[in-house]
Write a structure and sequence with these properties.
Elements (H helix, E strand, L loop, with lengths): L6 E7 L2 E7 L3 H21 L5 H40 L1
Antiparallel strand pairs: 1-2
Helix pairs in contact: 1-2
Length: 92
């Protein structure tokens, strides 16, 4: 939502209800919360002895790890694109 209007949405994450308020679209909020729920269920199914708080922390750690990897890959791709542009400009 680009007009600054707030989206308010109640979602279920790992069996608990949360009200999410943000400027993003309903689709975006649902996508984010579904990814969190899916990751929590994946971690919970592999570690049945963990409580919800530990599952949530491990989910956060896993998702931030994935984010940082993608951020690093993006930076490498930008550097490679810059090298290619510079090479093309020099050969142009």
């Amino acid at each position: 939502m680009s007009n600054g209007q707030k989206t308010r949405l109640t979602v279920d994450i790992y069996g608990s209800q949360y009200t999410i308020i943000g400027t993003e679209s309903e689709y975006h909020i649902r996508r984010v919360t579904e990814m969190v729920d899916d990751k929590m269920r994946e971690i919970g199914s592999r570690n049945a002895s963990l409580d919800t708080q530990k599952i949530a922390v491990l989910t956060a750690v896993n998702m931030v790890n994935d984010y940082l990897k993608m951020e690093e890959e993006l930076e490498q791709m930008k550097m490679e694109m810059s090298r290619v542009k510079n090479r093309n400009a020099a050969n142009g």
